[in-house]
Every structure is written in C-alpha cells, then in structure tokens.
From TrEMBL:
InterPro entries per UniProt: G_ERA_dom (IPR030388), GTP-bd (IPR006073), GTPase_Era-like (IPR005662), KH_dom-like_a/b (IPR015946), KH_dom_type_2 (IPR004044), KH_sf_prok-type (IPR009019), P-loop_NTPase (IPR027417), Small_GTP-bd (IPR005225)
Pfam short name (any one): MMR_HSR1
UniProt record similarity statement: Belongs to the TRAFAC class TrmE-Era-EngA-EngB-Septin-like GTPase superfamily. Era GTPase family.
Record gene name: era
UniProt-annotated stretches for the region G3: 85-88
G5, as annotated region: 177-179
Keyword Disulfide bond set for record: no
Domain Era-type G per the UniProt entry, residue ranges: 26-206
Region (G4) location: 149-152
Cellular compartments per GO CC: cytosol; plasma membrane
Full protein name: GTPase Era
Keywords of this entry: Cell membrane, Cytoplasm, GTP-binding, Membrane, Nucleotide-binding, Ribosome biogenesis, RNA-binding, rRNA-binding
Function according to Swiss-Prot or TrEMBL: An essential GTPase that binds both GDP and GTP, with rapid nucleotide exchange. Plays a role in 16S rRNA processing and 30S ribosomal subunit biogenesis and possibly also in cell cycle regulation and energy metabolism.
Length: 324
C-alpha cells in the first residue's frame, strides 16, 4: 500500500532544488503530451507506481497539468524524473477548455523530453494533427519521443506509428507499448529516461510523488468516480471541490466533505439519482479508492450544488484552482 505522503504532498508551484550533497544527483523534466483519451494518465501512473492522475474511458478526464515525481536512489547516485501529465489538446469550447490548452502549451516549455502519446489502434485524427503542429513549432533541439500506446489492441501498429511519425520530422525515437497491459515496457522506457538525465539538483524531496495538494488529489478521485458512473455529456459539466478535510483521531475515520458542481437543476437531479442512488454509488466508489490509497477508513460526505455556467465563470474557475 502506498504511503499517503506520496500522494498528498503540499503543492510546489515553483519547485526548489533539493540538496543531496553526499552523492551526485541527476534530474530532468518530461512532458507527456497527446490528444484526449490516448492513455497519458495511465502512462504517468505506471511510471510512478502510484495513482496520482484520474483515469476513465472518457476523453478530457485530465483538466490540469499534474506533476509526478519518480526518484531512484542508488548507493552512488540519485536520479529524479519529473513527469508533467497534460490535459488532452483539443478544440476548446469554453473557458475551461482554453485553460486546459494553455496548460498543454506551457508544459512543453523548458522540459528535457516530450513524450508524444498516440493511440496505435487508429490513424492520426485532426486532434493528433493539432498536437503535431504544436510539436513542429518547437525548437529543433527539443527531444520528442513518439510513444504508440494501446499496442495490445492495435491491428496495424507499425503502419499507424509510421503515419504519426511522418507528421513530426523532429521525432528522434519511437516506442510501442501498452501502458495498461504491459507495465514492464513502461518501466523499460522509464529506465532509459533515467539513464539520459543530466547532472543537476533534485527539484523535489525524495519521498514526494506528486505536487498536488491532498484536497486536489481527493477531488480528482471523486470526479473520476462521477465520470465513470454518469453517462453522455453530463460528466464534463461536473466539477468537484473538497471543502473540509479532517484528519482522524484514534479509531475515528478521516472526514471529507466535498461539493459536486453542476450547471443546471436537471443535472443535479441526474447526479443525485432516484432516491439518492446515483450520488451514493459515486460516493461509495470514491470512498473505496480513498481508503486504499490513504490506508484509513474514510467518511465521505457529498453535496450536489448548481453553479450555473461555471465553465465560463472566471471566479468559479479560480475557486477550483484553474488559474491563468
């Protein structure tokens, strides 16, 4: 079971170099880029060996950049990879979507490597071509590695990988893997990235796995549960804000209180479900995940509130942490 400190670390918006004077240290930043629903968050979680990013079969599950930290300490050296998982690059339809695309553009600045993740089951789509256009506009010295994901379900992976590679001439390396079904291939890629790091200071303490606050992490677990259980377009109009986190005393459960925001009154009724059945199911699923990762019983209280047009409301977006 994971140590809660690995996934509930305080936010570090501007990470300060960490001292490790007794042995040489190596570090670098790796951005994980791609259109929605190609497996970027699954890849990140597998790199880290712990869940820091939400995963659902629905596109646009990731809404903000999440930094995941993997530190490998050996007797003679310490190596640290800082992965930046980005939202899927897409055609924005609202202020939230514009924020998500800004997160993607910001992620490719000042990183050492970009992992461009694509779905090997399909040829390049218009959204893939938008990502490729962004990559072609980078400094030619930027290392771009093409990562073909979902290999286990691809009929013509070689042909698909070739089509993607033709879109970005500055791709310097290609990989084929299944982040969900073949973690060993992901670990092999991680080992290569570790071996290529330049000597430099550690940017995070060695026991940190994510730069998210514990409230943000818990909110994403709850939102993942909501997206999994709700159908059609409604999941994209749901936001989650954790308002209370009370650490347990003795045998008491950890107490969490969160709001689920929806934009219309009829959406609220859907999220609640008949007799409260849907919100109970969302809460039950989220609570199970929280208890597994935190290693403690959790009392989770959920409320569903109407926050009209929150995706276009700058104040609402700031409350949820979507700055910029």
């Amino acid at each position: 079971m994971s140590d809660p400190s690995e996934i509930t670390s305080p936010p570090l918006d501007a990470p300060a170099p960490q001292s490790s004077a007794e042995v040489p240290t190596y570090s670098g930043f790796v951005a994980i880029l791609g259109k929605p629903n190609v497996g970027k968050s699954t890849l990140l979680n597998t790199f880290l060996g712990v869940k820091v990013a939400p995963i659902t079969p629905k596109p646009q599950t990731t809404r903000r950049g999440v930094r995941g930290v993997y530190t490998d300490r050996q007797a003679s050296e310490v190596r640290q990879l800082v992965f930046v998982d980005t939202p899927g690059f897409h055609r924005a339809k609202d202020a939230l979507g514009e924020f998500m695309n800004r997160e993607v553009r910001a992620a490719v600045v000042d990183v050492d490597v970009i992992l461009w993740v694509v779905d090997l089951r399909r040829p390049p789509s218009d959204e893939d071509k938008e990502v490729a256009r962004l990559l072609r506009g980078l400094d030619p010295s930027t290392r771009v590695y093409l990562v073909g994901n979902k290999l286990d379900a691809a009929k013509y992976p070689d042909e698909a990988l070739e089509l993607y590679g033709e879109l970005v001439p500055n791709v310097s390396r290609t990989y084929r893997l299944s982040a969900l079904e073949d973690p060993e291939a992901v670990y092999a890629l991680r080992a290569e990235l570790l071996g290529e790091l330049a000597e430099g200071p550690l940017f995070f303490p060695e026991d940190i796995r994510s730069d998210q606050s514990r409230e943000t992490w818990a909110a994403e677990i709850i939102r993942e549960s909501a997206m999994t259980h709700l159908r059609q377009e409604l999941p994209y109009a749901v936001a989650v804000q954790v308002l209370q986190w009370r650490d347990p005393e003795g045998d008491e459960p950890l107490y969490l209180m969160a709001e689920l925001w929806v934009e219309r009154a009829n959406h609220r009724m859907i999220v609640l479900g008949k007799g409260g059945s849907m919100i109970r199911e969302i809460g039950r699923s989220a609570r199970k995940q929280l208890e597994v990762f935190l290693g403690h019983r959790v009392f989770l209280e959920l409320e569903v509130v109407v926050r009209r047009a929150w995706r276009e409301d700058p104040e609402a977006l700031r409350e949820l942490g979507f700055e910029g």
